[in-house]
Design a protein that fits this description.
disordered C terminus, eight-stranded mixed sheet, globular, 1199 residues, alpha+beta
Length: 1199
């Protein structure tokens, strides 16, 4: 950043009272985005942006903005041409010649590359030089208008084009385009300040074909047709200050529906889906009413738009005043299972409108507040809509997920602090990616992060009460809405940003409670708590001796000190005790109330006040305890393993009214296969008033118990008589009644029971014949004619049941399985599956649920050796063009096949798909599935693990996925799963290629294999995290020569790097030296013309000159060769490691011994470096454009 101006007081005053310090030397107040041409055939976009900025410091002469993959034609500031540098170090993280293949090195380089262009650090890919004519103007802190013309050609991220290959015009084909991305990804489709903390007002204009509709943020002011009526322009105004990261766009031939209940809400969907849209969104107004009521605050924007599009990046993406949803969420009134899921998506997106879009965050370390609040109020909506049982079940589910993830990976940190001293007490839990930036996070980590954030908000609510919690939210919202209406006082806008400290301050102001310990425990450090509880009843003293141990040494755990609630159900009622968990106290004495008196027939009072009769014969005669629960309210992020006798679990299952307790009891009873457990589970299954999810869980537990008791089991197979009684005809018990799904509870039970029954096994470990016949009968007699709901999910579950009944094939005399000698049971199953698959082709079910189940079932048959293992069927279903759920199911089977059969060919096929598939979600899922079910791992030998695979994956994460953060992080996760952190074991030792030059602290190419011509340039080490070329303009900040003494060990930030190089290249240069470049250095040097759009690493920054479009540099005619290599000259990093000691794995070992030597040699190294750079600096730098053209007059070279 340039040195601050002469008047620091002015800077501070500008920031408002909250003390938000902007990392930028200017304030953005307004931005215009105008896209005047969108071509669906070519998938290209042409337009311009105009940013209005006020300098906040004098002598501002560089302006940094974000822009990725946009081709920038010209930049003007107040109508004067301005020179600019375009440098994106994330395109290729480590230089392609580098022989490094260890993940530690990559992660550090990647984190450095991302922060080098991070707007929150005041950086950016695009560096614009303020023309000298405007310097005086800037010193007076007067307004600047920056006008940038840009285009996008076949974007690989940020904007996604969906162009179905069918007949007709683009509108008839349903072609559409929408913005997408993970976290702040707006820089992928127009130049901006891509930070959540830089707010401004917006004017958005989109010119599209007359048959198309453009939907964007804010109010639609007008639509204007062109003279020939072939095109129209949509003008949107967003008057509420908003960050660029919350700006979005969707263009397509949408059908439009104005919400009948709220006219300011509009819904858009693709052609012919209007009836589904009407039904799906008919519920939305209730969500609005709920949020506005609990937050006692109006919805902040003047309108709201929902757009349902195909090939969505995520199911729900919330942007300022509009949300983009996957079209697969749409459903008709006949669909049961999808309805709650879609409603949850709508509610989630609306919660994020308040916290996430309207209220934004100051920095990445405050992200948890927004995700936490939006997740928390969404939870309140769930509690109201689906009831307390569903809500508590969801909380338990989320808690189990985060606990499992943290114990597996080592922790999720909500509030990463980047202060100098803080690092010590706050070690980053994640070795294989940096958590300091959203774009380096694994996607799974990010989803777990969101999950933990809302659970922590719930812990805060437990501490200060819901009433205060909602008051805090209301306070945040009302401050923000006051600030947003201050049109000309942009320094007030920082009130719309939330920070951790601001949030905590407002909690203590509102509630007067100190929640610091809670924050320290759950927000400032990672890890969950692991409790082990066991007890003994002391009859003499009538006390319960409870022992609670903690494990805080395994990864992902932490020590808990504080209150812990324990609920004890005794004969006299239910009693709550709060124990104080101290440093080392394990034993706690809890006094009991009832002198055990079982002789009096008296009802037993439960937690919720109801009184029940119990059969107490199973109890221990000496103790009054029925059951004990540790932390029943889930007020700690914990995993509890508590030991109780089997009868206690059975009582807990039967009589405890909390669904979480019932589910805990069910999972505990799996360990007690006794007739009493069987009875308790069967009773729960029959109880109508029991929560349906508990009954579903009981089905599977009962199947497990039955399998453990197989030798002593009496009567028909588990659940069969119950199912017959509930769902079959009275007269003919093997025929199921015609479907009637009016009662959703019994519908879910009817779907689940057969799936669980199919898991039953007899003494020979086969599925009992009568169970299979029973399931086949259910399929055969299924009749949905009189049902008002669709039975597609039910039929899909019947196929899952068939798949569950399959057991491994017994091969006789090693005969090869063919379809002729199939086991008769398997033949029946296969016939059903085939019939279903063929039916699906004629009459597809909703979301193709049946095809998905059939594909899974076929894979099960293959794995069990009944049909020949062959991936070709799955590969055909995985092709682009099938419905996404089918593709994912088929790909999952291919991933599994790759693992089981160790097939290199299929792995290659999957990786090719990751690189080339048109749908970003599918590419992401393939990497995700390979990571979850890897073909091999770092700890095992595998024929699949070879050098080519390492190179392929390295290339993928290094440069092949630079257009999609989520994809790149997915590739990193896979690399970590397969090869671990250090150099992959299958690689040969780098003996010849690299020589360790310890004196200079870097590795270089062995001189014996270097062509002479380059050997001279050896010394020019270039920082790994940026590859730039710089034009010869004087560096405005270099007052002295000191700037040159930059130690290349520490240069990671591209600003220092750039100014260093600007110094080296001070004199204007002549393109005369190109002929000395040897031809064999060509491959490393040829620049790519299309700036990274075709996925190749860009080594050529764009100056504002027209670049010749002649292919991508790979097939350059030899004549142009000399000119291009000249252009790339400063990049002479020939396969040698950069000087950075921080990253190179070789240096770690020698680091300490060479500390002393290092100092001596540093100067030598620097001067050499400088001299060398100077010599080259005279050479090939002002590169002429081979096309002649305007580059000679190009202002960037005018110095």
């Amino acid at each position: 950043m340039p040195p601050t101006g002469s008047d620091p007081a002015r800077m501070n005053r500008k920031k408002g009272d909250k003390g938000f310090e902007s990392p930028r030397p200017y304030k953005l107040t307004h931005q215009v985005v105008c896209i005047n041409n969108i071509n669906f055939q070519r998938k290209s976009v042409v337009g311009f942006v105009e940013l209005t900025i006020f300098p906040t410091v004098a002598n501002l002469n560089r302006i940094k903005l974000n822009s990725k993959q946009c081709r920038i034609y010209r930049v003007r500031i107040n109508d004067l041409e301005a020179a600019f540098i375009y440098n994106d170090p994330t395109l290729e993280v480590c230089h392609s010649e580098s022989k490094q293949r260890n993940l530690n090195y990559f992660s550090n380089a990647y984190a450095a590359a991302v922060s080098a262009v991070d707007p929150d650090a005041g950086n950016g890919e695009l560096c614009i030089k303020v023309p000298s004519e405007l310097w005086k103007h800037v010193d007076e802190l007067k307004v600047l208008k920056i006008h940038i013309n840009f285009s996008l050609d076949q974007p690989k991220g940020g904007l996604h084009f969906v162009v179905p290959s069918v007949e007709g015009s683009m509108a008839e084909r349903g072609a559409h385009v929408f913005s997408c991305g993970y976290q702040n990804s707006t820089r992928f489709w127009f130049p901006c300040v891509d930070s959540y903390s830089e707010l401004c007002t917006w004017k958005l204009e989109f010119t599209v074909d007359a048959a198309m509709v453009a939907v964007s943020n804010g109010d639609l002011v007008e639509t204007v047709y062109t003279h020939d009526m072939r095109k129209k322009t949509f003008h949107y105004m967003l008057t509420i200050p908003t960050s660029a990261s919350n700006i979005s766009l969707a263009i397509g031939p949408f059908e439009i529906l104005v919400d009948p209940y709220m006219h300011e809400v509009t819904h858009f969907c693709l052609p012919q889906l209007l009836p589904l849209l009407k039904h799906t969104t008919s519920y939305l107004h209730e969500v609005f009413e709920f949020y506005e009521e609990i937050l006692t605050c109006r919805y902040p924007y003047s309108c709201f738009k929902t757009v349902f599009i195909d090939e969505a990046y995520v199911e729900v993406a919330a942007y300022a005043s509009m949300s983009i949803f996957s079209t697969n969420l749409l459903h008709s009134a006949m669909i049961i299972d999808e309805t709650p899921l879609t409603r949850r998506c709508l509610a989630q997106s609306l919660a994020q409108q308040f916290f996430g879009c309207f209220i934004s965050r100051m920095s990445w370390s405050d992200e948890w507040v927004l995700k936490g609040i939006s997740g928390y109020i969404y939870g309140l909506w769930m509690k109201k809509t689906f009831g307390v049982n569903e809500y508590r079940h969801w909380i338990k589910e989320e808690l189990d997920k985060i606990v499992a993830y943290e114990l597996k990976t080592g922790g999720v940190l909500l509030h990463p602090m980047f202060g100098g001293g803080k690092e010590k007490d706050n070690p980053a839990p994640h070795p294989h990616f940096s958590i300091k930036h959203p774009h380096t996070l694994s996607w799974e980590y990010y989803t777990m992060f969101q999950c933990k954030a809302h659970l922590v908000m719930r812990l805060i609510e437990n501490r200060i009460s819901m009433e205060f919690m909602l008051q805090v939210f209301n306070k945040l919202l009302s401050l923000a809405s006051t600030a947003s209406s201050q049109k000309f006082q942009s320094h007030m806008w920082s009130q719309m940003l939330v920070s951790t400290s601001g949030f905590l301050k407002s909690i203590s102001n509102v509630s007067g409670k100190d929640i610091q310990p809670l924050i320290k425990q759950w927000v400032d450090q990672s890890g969950v708590v692991k409790f082990y509880g066991s007890f003994a009843f002391n009859r003499k003293r009538n006390v319960l001796e409870l022992e609670i141990k903690q494990d805080y040494t395994s990864p992902g755990t932490q020590k808990y000190v504080g209150p812990l609630k324990v609920t004890v159900q005794e004969l006299d009622g239910s009693f709550n005790h709060t124990l104080q968990i101290e440093e080392n106290s394990l034993k706690h004495d809890i006094p009991c109330h009832s002198k055990s008196r079982r002789n009096k027939k008296k009802k037993i009072p439960l937690m919720n006040g109801e009184e029940v009769d119990m059969d107490l014969s199973a109890m221990d005669a000496d103790s009054p305890l029925l059951w004990i629960r540790i932390d029943p309210d889930m007020a700690v992020l914990r995993k509890v393993d508590s030991e109780q006798a089997d009868f206690m679990w059975q009582y807990q299952l039967r009589y405890e009214r909390d669904v979480v307790a019932q589910q805990e009891a069910i999972s505990a009873l799996e360990r007690f296969p006794t007739p009493a457990s069987r009875l308790a589970l069967t009773d729960v299954l029959e109880q109508e008033q029991c929560f349906y999810r508990v009954r579903m869980a009981a089905c599977f537990c009962l199947a497990k118990i039955a399998n453990s008791m197989v030798s002593t089991w009496t009567g028909p197979p588990a659940m069969k008589s119950l199912f017959t009684r509930m769902f079959c005809c009275k007269t003919c018990p093997n025929i199921v009644k015609t479907n009637n799904f009016m009662s959703f509870q019994s519908y879910f039970l009817q779907k689940t029971m057969p799936v669980a029954m199919a898991l039953l096994r007899d003494v020979h470990n086969l599925c009992p014949k009568e169970v299979l016949t029973f399931i086949l009968d259910l399929i055969k007699y299924n009749d949905n004619r009189k049902n008002k709901f669709s039975d597609n999910y039910y039929r899909a579950e019947m196929i899952d049941a068939l798949a569950n009944s399959v057991t491994p094939a017994v091969s006789v005399n090693n005969e090869v399985r063919t379809l002729d000698n199939l086991n008769p049971d398997v033949r029946l199953i296969l016939e059903e599956i085939t019939r279903f698959l063929n039916m699906e082709k004629l009459l597809p079910s909703y979301r193709h649920t049946i095809t998905v189940s059939c594909l899974r079932a076929i894979r099960v048959l293959q794995k069990n050796g009944h049909v020949p293992s062959d991936p070709s069927l799955f590969k055909s279903y995985a092709e682009y063009g099938h419905f996404v759920d089918i593709r994912i199911a088929a790909l999952e089977a291919v991933v599994d096949y790759t693992k089981v059969d160790r097939s290199y060919e299929e792995l290659q096929w999957l990786l090719t798909m990751v690189q080339n598939d048109p749908v970003p979600y599918v590419r992401h899922k393939i990497l995700n599935m390979l990571t979850k079910n890897p073909p091999f791992t770092k700890s095992m030998e595998s024929p699949l693990c070879n050098e080519a695979l390492v190179d392929q994956l390295w290339k993928l994460m290094n440069s092949g996925t630079s257009h999609d953060w989520r994809l790149r992080c997915g590739a990193v996760d896979l690399y970590f799963t397969l090869f671990g952190l250090s150099r992959p074991s299958c690689l040969p030792l780098p003996e010849l290629g690299l020589v360790l030059n310890l004196k200079e602290k870097k590795a270089v190419l062995n001189p014996t294999i270097i062509p002479e011509a380059i050997a001279g340039n050896q010394e020019a080490a270039v920082n790994p995290s940026s590859h730039t070329q710089l034009v010869g303009f004087q560096n405005p900040f270099s007052s002295s020569q000191d700037e040159e003494e930059i130690d290349m060990d520490t240069v990671h930030d591209s600003q220092a790097f750039i100014s260093h190089h600007l110094n080296m290249l001070e004199r204007p240069s002549t393109p005369g030296l190109s002929k000395y470049r040897p031809a064999n250095s060509r491959s490393a040097l040829i620049p790519q013309h299309s700036a990274g759009c075709d996925g190749t690493p860009t080594t050529k920054p764009q100056w504002n000159m027209e670049l010749p479009r002649k292919g991508t540099g790979k097939e350059q005619p030899p004549l142009e060769m000399s000119v291009h290599t000249a252009a790339a000259a400063p990049l002479s990093v020939f396969g040698k490691e950069p000087a950075s000691s921080k990253h190179s794995e070789h240096h770690h070992h020698h680091h300490h011994e060479h500390k002393k030597k290092k100092k001596k040699h540093k100067h030598k190294h620097k001067h050499k470096h400088r001299r060398d750079g100077r010599e080259r600096g005279r050479g090939p730098l002002a590169f002429p454009s081979p096309a002649g053209g305007r580059s000679a007059r190009s202002p960037s070279l005018s110095d």
